[in-house]
Amino acid sequence: MRSLLSSTYFGPIQWYQKLQRSEASLIERHENFVKQTYRNRMIIATANGLQALTIPTTHDTSMLMKDIRISDHANWRHVHWNALASAYGESPFFPYYQDDIRPFYEKKYEFLFDFNLEITHKMIELLDIRPTLSLTEHYISRDTMSADLVDYRDAIRPKHPLPDEDFVPRRYYQVYEHKHGFQPNLSILDLLFNEGNESILYLI
Fold first, then answer.
1. What does pTM read for this prediction?
2. Rounded distance between C-alpha atoms, residue 104 and residue 119, angstroms
């Protein structure tokens, strides 16, 4: 089966599991941008509980994802990197991967989709997975998609996701589990910083 996915900002484990398990994956470029989704936010575990890191954008939700520009508002790059360093500085593998992740907060990207796509390629490299990945050429509606394409656009979202029977969160080491319990399906960075090169085992 092939999967149809929305663009994500260091998307959740569920999203990367679809990349690993699918014969091929399509990333949707032509859907309307929606705020409070994984398109411009990731969720991490901190000493104080869960935290959402959101990229500010300069356009409203009437525009297509491929046309959304990143805003420089509120020095978000500095804020996000400091939040990651604070949350995962004591995790086993943050020292090994920080030089791979930090450049995303030092370079300015104009378009959110391009930023997310470069992140995706870097994470594929670090996770050592080899998906067949392509981008949509037009919006794919549920009425017109082929039978071998599974739509996960509404199943992988922070709020009110549709059921996904194929995804069962599996426990792994988390720095703050002793304080807040295990937190499932966080940003792929949570898995990478805590499990390192064994992260791929949680995506199979």
1. 0.96
2. 8
